[in-house]
Each structure stands twice: as C-alpha cells, then as structure tokens.
UniProtKB/TrEMBL annotation:
NCBIfam families: ffh
Name of the protein this chain belongs to: Signal recognition particle protein
Entry note about domains: Composed of three domains: the N-terminal N domain, which is responsible for interactions with the ribosome, the central G domain, which binds GTP, and the C-terminal M domain, which binds the RNA and the signal sequence of the RNC.
Oligomer status and interactors: Part of the signal recognition particle protein translocation system, which is composed of SRP and FtsY.
Catalytic activity annotation: GTP + H2O = GDP + phosphate + H(+)
UniProt keyword annotation of RNA-binding present: yes
Family, similarity comment: Belongs to the GTP-binding SRP family. SRP54 subfamily.
Gene Ontology CC: one annotated term: signal recognition particle
Length: 440
C-alpha cells in the first residue's frame, strides 16, 4: 500500500539532495512534488495545499545540521505533519459501559460484518472480554448467516432474530440478552446500503438513539478514496460517530482516505483492517502510518505482530542466540514458519522498510517462502549454523540443490544478514537503536 505516494515523495526529497540549507527557493520544487504526490494519492485538494504550506513554514530557515541532509530534515517535518493530519495520538475505544455497546455503521460491502468479527475476536483474545455479536440486518438473510459464520469461527455468540423486522427491537433484545448472560461487550452490526440513502440513515439513527452506544464506529473501505471521505461526512452528520475504521488497507495503493478523513470529519481512525482473516486487524497509529506512507516501513507493528505469534519460551531462546551471535538459518526457518502464521504476506512485506518498494512489481503469493525454504533445506547443518562459511562454491551447490538461481541464494543471504542485524538492534530498550537508524 501507499507505494505510489512513497515513491513520489522519495523523488521529491531527492531534489533537495546536495543543498546545505532549506530555502524558499529550493524547498518550493520539493513541496510542489509533495503536493502532487498527495493529490495523486487522492488526498483532498485543500488538505494537500494546507499541508504543504504548513511544512514550508516550518522548514524555511531551519539550519540543517551537518549530519543531516536537508532532504532528511524535510522528511521528518513531512512525517510529523502527516502524523498530525491523521490524528496525532492513538485513539482508544470506550469500553466503559456494562455491557459496553458498540454500534457499527457504514455502507454495504465496506467490511462491517468482517470487522465486527475482528473486533469481537480482538476484544476476546486481547482484552479478556466476553463479547456478543448482534445481527441487525433485516433485509439480507445472507448477512445474518455471514455473521453466524464469523461468530462460529472465532467462538463468539451471535444474537439474531431472523423473523423480526424491527432492528431497534432486535438490538434492544440483544442487550437484554447480554445483561442476563454476562456478556460485557455488545457489538451491533447493522444493515448497509450500496450508497447513502435516507431510509438507511433514518434506520441507523433510530437504532443509535434507542441503544445509546458508548462507541459508534463508522466502517469505510479505504480503496474508495475521496468517496470514503464523502460517505464519512454523511454518516457523521447523522450519527456524530466516535471513530473511523478503515478497512482493506491491504489493497490500498493510494492512501488518500487515511490522510483526509480525520481532517474532514475531525474523528480519529481507531482501527484498520488489513485482510480478510479474523486476525487482520491493527490499532491505528498515526505516527506509524506516516512512516509507512513515507516508505519507512512499519517496523513496530511488524514486531508487535510477531511478538503476538511467538511463544515466549522460543523468543527467550532466540534472544539468547541473537545476543551470542548464534542466530542461524535453522532459526531463520523457524521464524519463517512463525511469520507464515501471521497471515497475509503482502501486508507483512509492506511493513518492512524498503521492501514494499523493492518488491512492488513482484507478485507475492502465500507460498512466497517456498524458495527460501528450499534453499535453506539445501544447506548443510554447519552452513546453517555458520552462514559466514558459505562461499561462492557452496552457493552454487546450494542453488543447484534447491532448484534456484545463485542470485536467489545471494538475495537470501543478504536478507538473512539484514534480519540478523535488525534483530540485534531490537535488543536495545524498546528497539530504540533501530528507530534511530531509521531516522525516527
Ligand atoms: P459489509 O457488507 O459491510 O458487512 O461487508 P463485509 O464484511 O461482508 O465485507 C465485504 C467484503 O470485503 C468481503 O468479501 C470481505 O471478506 C472483504 N473485506 C472486509 N475487510 C477486509 C480487509 O480488511 N481486507 C480485505 N482485503 N478484504 C476485506
């Protein structure tokens, strides 16, 4: 995602290379490019213009430290401003009610039902909650079934009344059911339409008024660009919702919605959906997203996700190995098995700095690791524990044995090397060294 934008920004910052100080003159071209990149990413015109004006004000006259290129300084200013534009701080979710009531709103196909499941799963597994899912779509029986399928998948009860045509009543009954049966979160999935229409708005407004949710969330498909912003406005006018859920970010190559929504409706983006699987949900961190847009990768998210999947015992063992410089290809293989469990490859690659750009034209499949695994399997045990002994001759043998090319073996060696370095740096408190290296 966002590859186009980060590519263009990259070019824009290049213009500044070789200049010692940021001036009105040399910054103008760069910012023009930045603005164009934002517009291409489907960011609202006025927002893009205000954005570059602000960055310019901050940039001009700043002394560029000798160690810092003006381009780098500008990247930092742009990053900070982007972070601000997308909401600044992380916005939490209000779970103060008993039960806490969460109302989902949005158009049909935005990913409401999928997200309701993801959120229920998230609250159950990460926050130790007992959620109840409620099917309030009275028009499409398939939607009720879909929620039941999702509920079965994650082991969360789904409340529905297939014969009842009154969504207000269904929602109220569901809350009664939750109170009587010890559910502490109620997630109400509602009916959506393909476009904003009065009937839908009236209906959701009625449900909203009747159940008084602590959280009203608006779900929107990130791929719809500026339309997403317009829809958000329409729903916000009626519901004054509390937060935005941006789905399908795994497929979004433009990112304009993420950048524009906060400033148009002034409501924070709280979560993002990054795939069809129930685990493909991330808390929205404006600063990390800004880094990602700028092609710096979202290493922290990646690490967190990895941490969730890794078992502690294994992690401790691994840490020891890294500290002792004993991390080898067998461990790498184990890591790959773990990564595979994390889900969507494309999404993961997008989080690695530089990788999304480098691999932009590569079709990543779920068995993207097939070659890597084959290569490692063709190594001898000693080669796996001491990769430094792998010379040209050995590389040729490994390539032959695994049915790959020497370049592929080289590439893997390089990746391995980078990964080892990265992991060593993560050892510091909070991975600070790594962030430093990345200029954060
Ligand atoms: P609803 O009509 O708003 O309830 O939307 P659904 O939950 O049925 O989602 C519509 C389609 O989008 C389904 O095929 C989902 O699998 C898919 N979908 C939902 N969220 C995501 C996401 O974050 N990424 C991707 N790639 N697909 C998603």
């Amino acid at each position: 995602m966002f590859d186009n934008l980060s590519d263009k920004l990259d070019k824009a910052f290049h213009i500044l290379k070789g200049h010692g100080k940021i001036t009105e003159v040399n910054v103008a071209d760069t910012l023009k490019e930045v603005r164009r990149a934002l517009l291409d990413a489907d960011v609202n015109f006025k927002i893009a213009k205000d954005f570059t004006t602000k960055v310019k004000e901050k940039a001009i006259g700043q002394d560029v430290l000798t160690t810092l290129q003006p381009g780098q300084l500008l990247v930092k200013l742009v990053k900070d401003e982007l972070t601000e534009l997308m909401g600044g701080d992380v916005a939490g979710i209000n779970l103060s009610g008993n039960p806490s009531i969460i109302l989902m709103s949005g158009l049909q196909g935005s990913g409401k039902t999928t997200f309701s499941g993801k959120l229920a799963n998230f609250l159950k597994t990460k926050k130790n909650k007992k959620p109840l899912l409620v099917a309030c779509d009275i028009y499409r029986p398939a939607a009720i079934n879909q929620l039941h399928v999702v509920g079965d998948q994650i082991g969360v009860e789904v409340y529905s009344e297939p014969e009842n045509k009154n969504p207000v009543e269904i929602a109220q009954n569901a809350i009664k059911h939750a109170k009587a049966n010890g559910f502490n979160v109620v997630i109400v999935d509602t009916a959506g339409r393909l476009a904003v229409d009065k009937e839908m708005m009236d209906e959701i407004a009625r449900v909203h008024k009747a159940i008084e949710p602590q959280e009203t969330l608006f779900v929107v498909d990130a791929m719809t660009g500026q339309d997403a912003v317009n829809t958000a406005k329409a729903f916000n006018d009626i519901l004054n919702f509390d937060g935005v859920i941006l789905t399908k970010l795994d497929g979004d190559t433009r990112g304009g919605a993420a950048i524009s929504i906060k400033s148009v409706v002034n409501k924070p983006i709280k979560f993002v959906g990054t795939g069809e699987k129930m685990e493909a949900i991330d808390v929205f961190y404006p600063d990390r997203m800004a880094e990602r847009i700028l092609g710096m990768g979202d290493v922290v998210s990646l690490v967190e996700r990895a941490q969730e999947q890794f078992d502690e015992e294994e992690a401790r063992k691994l840490q020891k190995k890294i500290a002792k410089n004993e991390f080898g290809f067998d461990d790498f293989l184990t890591q790959i098995q773990q990564v595979k469990k994390m889900g969507n490859m494309k999404d993961l690659v997008g989080m690695i700095p530089g990788a999304s750009k480098a691999m932009k034209d590569v079709e990543i499949e779920d068995d993207a690791f097939k070659h890597i695994e084959a290569i490692i399997h063709s190594m001898t045990p000693i080669e796996r524990t001491k990769p430094s002994i792998i010379d040209v001759k050995r590389k040729a043998r490994i390539a032959k044995g695994s049915g790959t090319k020497v370049e592929q073996v080289n590439q893997l060696m390089k990746q391995f090397d980078q990964m080892s370095k990265m992991m060593k740096m993560m050892q510091g408190p909070g991975g600070k060294n790594l962030m430093k290296m990345m200029g954060g």
